[in-house]
Amino acid sequence: MAQGSNRIKIGLSVMAVVIGAGAVGAFMQRESIGRWWAVRSFMQPGDRASQVTALSAYGEPVVPSLLATWKGTDGDLISASADVLSQMIKEWGRDDERTARLRTQLVTGYDQWSEPGCTVALRCLDESGIGTDAGTDAGTISGCRRIAAHALQSPVVDQRIYGIRFALKPELGLLPQVVPLLKDSSPEVRRAAMVTVGPRLEGEEAIPEVIAAEDLLAWLHDEDAEVRRLCERSLRTRGLREDEIRLGRRLTHPDAQERLGLLIDLSRAEDVDLPMWLERLSRDSSSAVRAATARVASERQVPIDDRLDEMSRTDPDSAVRTIAEYYRKLNGR
């Protein structure tokens, strides 16, 4: 009787295990089916925005399906897939291991994607964090450097802007490559470039100077008002006073008459670095400006003898060479 009772107990225990395993299996299958259905629904045309939060809750298992959409050209689907990944990154945080794994996937898969896919990849990579402050490993940083350098040369405006953002990371060493983008055809790109390489910040936010203050003056005449404003702000962080900015605006003015007017102002000015200003004007594209510069330098006894001598020998305009030689001899130089 006791043996029979034991057999019943064992049988019931086995049955309980089987039932439990079946329940777990059914739950896992239901989870898998639910995830599959959620992804399938998301891929269909429709209101994907309302599905972003629900799909992001499935986490890493749906990441490969989302990244696969970036090989195509369906802009809406690509953007919506990026929205899901952005939501995941926000929920996980930059220091989470899942974010680190996603960051690696973004770097290693970059070359497989279409232009729209690359654009959202840069966006997600930016959100995931790049650099040692985000816990990025050396291999991924190297990959980010390659991707950012590519983005800076991209024909896509948004990609160039992301490349500029990445260049701010000292680990990537790309800041000098931002300077040419100050001349970009897109005002949005020029603004981003000016914000990046224009200011001189102090302390922990210090940015190396990759373009001199005097070389920034030309952007005081940019056709975009915001670029002009950002240029002025950058020059102030470089220590230029308002009167120096005003003079700099005339120095780089596209109208030669304005630049000649600057020479008149400089001939009367007291608190300016006259040799520096005259040195710049002596290399002006206008022969009239260069000739007038030689005269002002002589009248004000400004010590730019070497430059006057150079002008007398090498200036492309024979009249300017003659004038420079005259003033050089007039002052016994």
Give an account of the 3D structure.
There is one protein chain. The protein has 333 residues and is mostly helical. Among the domains are: 54-173; 264-333, no CATH class. It has helices spanning 2-43, 52-56, 63-68, 75-92, 97-108, 115-128, 138-152, 157-167, 187-197, 213-216, 225-237, 242-251, 256-268, 274-281, 287-299, 305-314, 318-330. Mean pLDDT is 86; it is low at 14-28.
Write out key terms for the chains shown:
333 residues, mainly alpha, 65% helix, elongated
Give the total of beta strands.
0
* Category from helices, strands and their pairing: mainly alpha
Distance between the termini: 129 Å
Could you describe the largest sheet, including whether it forms a barrel?
none
Helix content: 55-70%
Assign an overall shape: elongated
Number of helices: 17
SSE arrangement, N to C: HHHHHHHHHHHHHHHHH
Mean pLDDT, as a whole number?
A: 86
Poorly predicted residue ranges? 14-28
Q: How large is the share of residues in beta strands?
A: under 5%
